[in-house]
Amino acid sequence: MNDIEFVIITGLSGAGKTLAMRVFEDHGYFCVDNLPPALIPTFIELCRQSIKKINKIALVIDIRGGGFFDKLFESLNELSKAGHNYEILFLEASDEVLIKRYKESRRRHPLAFEGRIVEGIKSEREKMSKLREVADYIIDTSLTTPAELKEEIVIRFIEQEKEDPFLINIVSFGFKQGIPLDADLVFDVRFLPNPYYIDELRPYTGEDPEVKEFVMKWPESQQFLDKLIDMIQYLIPYYIREGKTQLIIGIGCTGGRHRSVALADEIAARLKIDRCRVIIDHRDIDKDIERS
């Protein structure tokens, strides 16, 4: 029954488990935080039997479960007997770093009942020691930045499987309709000659050959396109390294029907990057015909 990728995220409070869960979630894992360990076998079976198949799961299991936490090894044994494989990621950090993080966040340690963080950390280390011994991966985040932790998780877990390709969404739009709120990068192509002022081109859109030819015949169009493609190809590996799963690029002209549409199509046609999938969204192409 190896049809489910199953990762247990655990470790010391303040070591980065929430960030780790977000990394898995961004890469298509169904994530649950603080699930009582006794419910793990039942939860796995529900995922297997769901209509929309869930085959990648990450669960955060830690000391917050209180008395429920003691059932973890019993549940893991039950999973093994049922033929389910799993991996355990254990995150930890030095006492000094954990104390500093708790003071900065002003949160109380789950085992610091009298408010002494250092005593809570000591107690947690003792309670988590057996789980640490059986962990598949142990990451010390004492000197690790969030970006470095993301990268290490991606290298150890995500890149080992058939990863979904990085998604590049190119959105053409009209500034008169507003900039796409979710765009990561926005480029203004209103500096290019406007087909709107050519009577025979005005009724067409940037998807029509006549408009494409007009927009792309100018030297500045070619130079802009070459420089933009070069920059995007340079940036993508760094976005992937930082844990991003998609990039939304806005290409805007006045109305979103002519120049931005032609440029967006041309960018998509030329953009070739390994492990990336490019899709196009002409957001305003069907809006009222005005200057574009």
Mean pLDDT across the residues is: 85
* Major beta sheet, strand line-up: 2-3-1-4-5
Total discrete domains: 2
C-alpha-based Rg, rounded: 26 Å
Looking at the overall shape, the CATH architecture of the largest domain is 3-Layer(aba) Sandwich
Helix content: 25-40%
Q: Work out the helix count.
A: 9
Query: What is the CATH homology-level superfamily of the largest domain?
Result: P-loop containing nucleotide triphosphate hydrolases
> How far is it from the N-terminal to the C-terminal residue, by CA?
56 Å
- Ranges where pLDDT stays below 50 over 5 or more residues in a row are none
Structural class: alpha/beta
**Overall shape:** elongated
CATH class of the largest domain: Alpha Beta
Question: What is the strand content?
Answer: 15-25%
Q: Major sheet, described briefly?
A: 5 strands, parallel
- Tell me the series of helices and strands, N- to C-terminal: EHEHEHEHHEHEEHHEHE
- Might you state the CATH topology name of the largest domain? Rossmann fold
Give the total of beta strands.
9
Structure, described:
By secondary structure, the chain is α/β, with parallel strands linked by helices. It has two domains: 156 residues, P-loop containing nucleotide triphosphate hydrolases (Rossmann fold, 3-Layer(aba) Sandwich); 117 residues, no CATH class. The chain contains nine helices and nine strands. The strands form two sheets. It has a five-stranded parallel beta sheet with strand order 2-3-1-4-5, with helices on both faces. Helix 2 links the parallel strand 2 and strand 3. It starts with a strand and ends in a 10-residue tail after the last strand. This is GTPase. It holds the Pfam family PapZ_C. Keywords: ATP-binding, GTP-binding, Nucleotide-binding.
